[in-house]
Amino acid sequence: MCTVTYIPTREGCIITSNRDEKITRERALPPTEYFIEGKKIIFPKDPKAGGTWVAHSETKIVVLLNGAQEKHLPKPFYRKSRGLVVLELISAENSLQYWQSLDLTDIEPFTIIMFENNKLMQLQWNEVEKSEEEKDENQFHIWSSSTLYSKEIREQRKVWFTNFIQENNNPTPEEILYFHQFTEAENKEFGLQINRNAILKTISITQCKVTHDKIEMIYLDLFE
């Protein structure tokens, strides 16, 4: 929920997400099939709120990042977890239409990356207004959470990603996972896998691989 990459492939695309969290947070349940609104949804579950940061159905993928355009000041209380919004979107018949009518009052700012019907969308809520932007599904993209990474660091991570793509023009899923796990490995503050004073760490990496009409999920639990 804090670093996401999108890589187009000949067969579809690969979306990979790093989850950075406080180690005091309860360990997530591994990806499991659930039925929501009559649809089969696969996702790792946050046992605290029951939501998730990444989920896929048979036709779409929804990934969450904390924060919108810039870092915000958290409030002591929010009426609903952002992870539950992910489940609402993934199970909606028309996710974009559902988003446009969704009331997000008193929900913490977030960014959603959604892939459906070969269309890549960025959806954001900044506590004041919603925005939606269609991204080029034929280009490479990286997002880093504004709550953990300054604008300068986010730009630096884009440089690392660009260098990776230049060196691996058609990267395999394994190469992408390696990028997410080991890029700038000595940089525990801003590398792809962080460990800030053994308090805030990258605790999992989730990858969704789209090949034609099939979506497969790989989950690396790094929680120690």
Count of DSSP helices? 4
Which value, in Å, is the CA radius of gyration? 16 Å
| Spans where pLDDT lies below 50 across 5 or more residues | none
Structural class: alpha+beta
Report the helical percentage: 10-25%
The H/E string reads: EEEEEEHHEEEEHHEEE
- Strand count: 13
Give the SSE map.
Elements: E1 3-8, E2 12-22, E3 29-36, E4 39-45, E5 54-56, E6 60-66, H1 82-91, H2 95-101, E7 110-116, E8 119-125, E9 130-135, E10 141-144, H3 151-167, H4 173-182, E11 195-196, E12 200-211, E13 214-221
Antiparallel strand pairs: 1-2, 1-10, 2-12, 3-4, 5-6, 6-7, 7-8, 8-9, 11-12, 12-13
Helix pairs in contact: 1-2
Question: Would you kindly provide a written description of the structure presented here, covering whatever features stand out?
Answer:
The protein is α+β, with helices and mostly antiparallel strands and 224 residues long. It contains 4 helices and 13 strands. The protein has helices at 82-91, 95-101, 151-167, 173-182, and strands spanning 3-8, 12-22, 29-36, 39-45, 54-56, 60-66, 110-116, 119-125, 130-135, 141-144, 195-196, 200-211, 214-221. Strands 1, 2, 10, 11, 12 and 13 form a 6-stranded antiparallel beta sheet that branches. Strand 11 and strand 12 form a beta hairpin. Helix 1 (82-91) crosses helix 2 (95-101).
Summary?
The chain has 224 residues and is an alpha+beta fold. The protein has helices at residues 82-91, 95-101, 151-167, 173-182; strands spanning 3-8, 12-22, 29-36, 39-45, 54-56, 60-66, 110-116, 119-125, 130-135, 141-144, 195-196, 200-211, 214-221.
